Amino acid sequence: MTSAANTPVEQRSSWLKYLLLIVAALASAVPLIVMLLTSVKTLPDVQSGSLLALPHSFTLEPWLKAWNSACAGLTCGGVQVGFWNSVKITVPGVVVTIALGSISGYALALWRPRWNGLLLMLLSLAIFMPYQVVVFPLVKMWSTANIFGTLFGVVLVHVVFNLPLITVLFRNFYVAVPGEIVKAARVDGAGFYSTFFEVILPMSVAPIIVSVILVFTNIWNDFLFGLIFAGPTGRPMTVELNNIVGAVTGEREYNVDMAATLITALPPLLIYFLSGRYFVRGLASGAVKG
Q1: What is the distance between the alpha carbons of residues 119 and 97, in angstroms, rounded to a whole number?
Q2: pLDDT over 70 for what percent of the chain?
Q3: What is the pTM of this model?
């Protein structure tokens, strides 16, 4: 007897789902394929062939030029300067945001400070606040504090804007932790921080991985804050990429532009590919559930 799952109607439905997924995947992959093919072609090959044509002469010269000597205005240092600036901005931004967000979420979920509900509401509102609304006040504040245009200033901006989301994320995860665990730690004499570092933090692998991916992607892909707060010597990779691609002097080197774009996109892609399955597990285990 044929099961209901193997009926012709169910089979056609399954094939239709797979077909739609394949079409969606191909549509999403076409721009990436075009960029990759263009980045390994010579410039005459780019100018004479179609976008999806295979390279007649495979070369990595565009990648080397994009990294070492691509010009952004009068400066021809490639994207490597912006890359290392992005590393200097992203790494401390991720570490500080997750450190503060995990402790704050732990306090909101398990220690229930006074005005807990109001604090949670304000954090939720801050998540959806448009960045552009507060850029000018932040510029004035950072200028008054003499940190405008500094590495510390741009890292602090990213921490401020990513902290509400990460705090709520950790809070929602810790809500599911049995309160008896904290009570038992208190009975054993553990305080606020000792309970967190010795009991709660070892249980927090899932939200930490989710937070790393989210914060790293947000900071690395940022353009607005890097353009405004980083200063002329600390511009991140996205700003350098914009300057290189937007340069209009001389011959337009599309292969170098595509190589620079791919180099900029590689770090967050690698982060996701290396920890993507843990990201999904973190979501499923309650890291973003309220």
Answers
A1: 17
A2: 90
A3: 0.83
